């Protein structure tokens, strides 16, 4: 059984959004077409409360894309994005959300970010997605969405570590690419046993 995991195809990650990924909207048609090739479709939604600790606006003297040391490790600081209930947090209007069996939200605890669909950035607090997939008998995952080098990569690596067979369709992803982060993410995914297509 296979699932398509669609990572964070939300307005704020598309052109015109608060944390726009270059050409982020261009993958939507291809993602819709991919949905029918899988037994299950899961959407993830970045979902931050106002004043989330990953927002640069919450750290005096810091700017977006600076880093800070959190209790759980180094955290990149972002522009305010995907605030709960905002337009930016909604899925891109062309995404076929009706086809989704479930939507999993992440990043809703103020003190900790969650790039991965499986664990928060402490690599320990589960989102519950693993249980959902296992109880449905799903062993094969295809990941697509935004952004390749953050939420897609973190999710893919965690999924591989959990024992799922994981493929990332790079043509259905777009990257932020901060200081070479795309190349690093690709190497880390490959090292974790993720198939990159
Ligand atoms: C993401 C940065 C902050 C992502 C989410 O979806 O890749 N990146 N929040
Ligand atoms: Zn976020």
What descriptive keywords fit this protein?
8 strands, two-stranded antiparallel ribbon, binds zinc ion, Rossmann fold, six-stranded parallel sheet, globular, alpha/beta, binds pyrazine-2-carboxylic acid, 197 residues
Structure, described:
By secondary structure, the chain is an alpha/beta fold. The chain has a single domain, classed as 3-Layer(aba) Sandwich (Rossmann fold). It has helices spanning 28-35, 129-135, 148-161, 181-191; strands at residues 2-7, 40-46, 67-70, 73-76, 102-106, 140-146, 165-174, 195-196. It has a 6-stranded parallel sheet. Strand 6 (140-146), helix 3 (148-161) and strand 7 form a beta-alpha-beta unit. Helix 3 runs parallel beside helix 4 (181-191). It is globular and about 50 Å long. The two termini are 19 Å apart. 43% of the residues are buried. The mean pLDDT is 97. The protein binds pyrazine-2-carboxylic acid and zinc ion (ZN). Pyrazine-2-carboxylic acid binds next to helix 3. Pfam families: Isochorismatase (PF00857). One of its GO terms (biological process) is pyridine nucleotide biosynthetic process.
